[in-house]
Design brief:
There is one protein chain. With 123 residues, the protein is mostly beta strands. The chain contains no helices and 12 strands. Strands 2, 5, 6, 7, 10, 11 and 12 form a 7-stranded mixed β-sheet that branches. A hairpin with a 6-residue loop joins strand 6 and strand 7. The protein is globular, with a radius of gyration of 13 Å.
Length: 123
């Protein structure tokens, strides 16, 4: 089970740090990713990290502003979101890929999903 938290309200230019904790089993060997869905839009890729943390991927829209990291000892993945923009407003979902799909930026590459946490950025 994945538990996402850390969402809330921030002003444009501010920062938020989300967390995604896996319970019930270790996910230290699994790639992990974050996606988001804004009202009226399809869910889109945000960031992904390999099981070791050595490889990361970012959507162009967040590159340079968001940083994804993980602490495998705590079974937790963190996206640090800086210089937030109103267009970052969305429900953010974490996911893990136990099957090594090799598709870190695609929804179908992930088997387990968290419940989502709301991020609202005011202008």
């Amino acid at each position: 089970q994945l538990q996402a938290s850390g969402g809330g309200v921030a002003q444009a230019g501010g920062s938020l740090r989300l967390s995604c904790v896996a319970t019930g089993r270790s996910f230290r060997l699994f790639a992990a990713g974050w996606f988001r869905q804004a009202p009226g839009k399809e869910r889109e890729f945000v960031a992904a990290i390999s099981w070791s943390g050595g490889t990361t991927h970012y959507a162009d829209s967040v590159k340079g502003r968001f940083t994804i990291s993980r602490d495998n000892a705590k079974n937790t993945v963190y996206p640090q979101m800086n210089r937030l923009k109103p267009e970052d407003t969305a429900v953010y979902y974490c996911a893990v890929d136990p099957g090594a799909s090799g598709r870190p930026t695609k929804e179908f590459g992930y088997d387990y999903w968290g419940q989502g946490t709301q991020v609202t950025v005011s202008s």
